[in-house]
Amino acid sequence: xxxxxxxxxxxxxxxxxxxxxxxxxxxxxxxxxxxxxxxxxxxxxxxxxxxxxxxxxxxxxxxxxxxxxxxxxxxxxxxxxxxxxxxxxxxxxxxxxxxxxxxxxxxxxxxxxxxxxxxxxxxxxxxxxxxxxxxxxxxxxxxxxxxxxxxxxxxxxxxxxxxxxxxxxxxxxxxxxxxxxxxxxxxxxxxxxxxxxxxxxxxxxxxxxxxxxxxxxxxxxxxxxxxxxxxxxxxxxxxxxxxxxxxxxxxxxxxxxxxxxxxxxxxxxxxxxxxxxxxxxxxxxxxxxxxxxxxxxxxxxxxxxxxxxxxxxxxxxxxxxxxxxxxxxxxxxxxxxxxxxxxxxxxxxxxxxxxxxxxxxxxxxxxxxxxxxxxxxxxxxxxxxxxxxxxxxxxxxxxxxxxxxxxxxxxxxxxxxxxxxxxxxxxxxxxxxxxxxxxxxxxxxxxxxxxxxxxxxxxxxxxxxxxxxxxxxxxxxxxxxxxxxxxxxxxxxxxxxxxxxxxxxxxxxxxxxxxxxxxxxxxxxxxxxxxxxxxxxxxxxxxxxxxxxxxxxxxxxxxxxxxxxxxxxxxxxxxxxxxxxxxxxxxxxxxxxxxxxxxxxxxxxxxxxxxxxxxxxxxxxxxxxxxxxxxxxxxxxxxxxxxxxxxxxxxxxxxxxxxxxxxxxxxxxxxxxxxxxxxxxxxxxxxxxxxxxxxxxxxxxxxxxxxxxxxxxxxxxxxxxxx
Length: 723
Prior knowledge:
Layout: H1 3-23, E1 50-56, E2 64-69, E3 72-77, E4 81-82, H2 86-96, E5 102-104, E6 132-138, E7 141-151, E8 155-160, E9 166-169, H3 172-179, H4 182-185, E10 189-191, E11 198-205, E12 214-219, E13 222-225, H5 243-250, E14 254-257, E15 260-263, E16 279-285, E17 294-303, E18 312-317, E19 326-329, E20 357-364, E21 368-375, E22 383-388, H6 397-404, H7 406-409, E23 414-417, E24 427-433, E25 438-445, E26 453-458, E27 463-468, H8 469-476, E28 496-500, E29 505-509, E30 517-520, E31 523-525, H9 533-544, E32 550-552, E33 562-566, E34 574-577, E35 582-585, E36 591-593, H10 596-602, E37 621-626, E38 633-634, H11 644-648, E39 655-656, E40 672-678, E41 681-689, E42 692-695, E43 698-701, H12 704-719
Antiparallel strand pairs: 1-2, 1-6, 2-3, 3-4, 5-9, 6-7, 7-8, 8-9, 10-14, 11-12, 11-16, 12-13, 15-19, 16-17, 17-18, 18-19, 20-21, 20-24, 21-22, 23-27, 24-25, 25-26, 26-27, 28-29, 28-33, 29-30, 30-31, 32-36, 33-34, 34-35, 35-36, 37-38, 37-40, 39-43, 40-41, 41-42, 42-43
């Protein structure tokens, strides 16, 4: 046997001895340390409930620590931030798959025993102080694993920290640690608290004073505003917050999408606008005690792009310390954080369910009290009646119902502190609710003297809603505005006399017949003339079923063109301001508004309005004459403007005009005239000036469309070349 063979046999013997010694090694020194040795094929790491994972990659790389809290895995070192469960679980599952192929007790480096010189030391196996390490916590057990060198045969060395043995294993855990990427493990959405778990919201915006920012608390009656201890704001005590807006903020971080991670470098926070955030949202738990501290703080930095609204840089902290982890969020997702905090206040004037309202009473300074009540008769629709000032007056169903629901339909535009107690309200509105409950709103004039707004303060609240004065005006208007708009109907209308301010009088008679008669301006219009009988029938129907739109506070008709109508010596007469659609009746106090189409009937032209009673093909000749040309020339063929005869055929007057005081000869001279012939009939249309024409010496007004067409035709006729 030669010397080389002898040496090889000695090494194998020493290796076998080392393996024997390794398999007999005892446990480590820690009482919670996992077993330091395991027979070949037995798992090195066991457990089911894992709660912590630590990865150390040498002295030059920061320690990575992950922890499971409330079902969410968090990176807790070097920064605290949520990660996806698949990352830590991939490393833990790789550790669970470990089972030794071979167990070895390395030779201590200082041991110079000749028989052990062939046994490798821990340094030889890559298990020195600079080696990668993995710590896994399962229940009360801690598995501290040291990762050694890889072997060319597809294996790797591993040791349990604090124990003497080393294990030759598959490199599954080594591969998982090498692939560990904290940035890739980070969550794609924030695990913020649900809205129901939030009991306090703080929203701060850059550039706003502390007392302008929003602090809201959830109470038994919903969200309300609070104040910071260092900036007391007693006026906000019990001030309501908008439930939907508050819940939107409370739920904003729950599943907020993360558009990508930017940096973990705290030195870059200033560059990205996060050293002085544009907005900071802090959410606190709803539970009392130590657990009620902040559970999530979201900070918004500067815009990251030019989209609308732009994406923003952001950080999220899940404890008292700020986080340097910068990521991107959609501008639309975080838009509520940048809105005016005043938008978080409850804009409603009253809280009661509208269906529970049984009535409304408004006490007005110097103008009395109005009270309406709802009545629900069995099997009938609810009605509204006057309680004050006159219980015998009928209320209009539509306007009274709108008046009772006005406080529910009106919302604040902005808010202001409630007026001091020394300032008396101009009105107090009291909602009568079911079960004898009430809800009051006080109405004040604006303290700065503005007349376009009023202040509305709900009882026991310190904040005033700033409301347009027009919105609350019906509560301050006279009771007449709520009077029934169905007017008393007179006896059957058989005759109508309508007198207008321009002196024209229309006298209609025989209305019970199929062929009523008309006398206009002292001239009786024959029954076969085409005067406007349909408009008369519409006016007659309204007079027999008079309906107002609404009563107004006016005592008398305002100035303007007025038409007067009577239906008989003992019947009520009407006066109508046609420009403002207002009317007054002699047997009723007050002024009421009527529909525009009804007011138009008082100003209608009932006389026959057809000026040229001929078809276009019946007009045999059309000639033009200008005032400066004494000669009358018939237009040559082909020069007459196209469409002129179609416009002239059947031409209607918009209204017949009164003649000048000196007769038709006193009218202004015509600028131009058109003469038309149709067999033995002929007509002369003359232009006297804007809105004034003459047909066969009778002054009329034409529709704007006809007037424009005729002026354009004359201009085209004058400019056309003569063949």
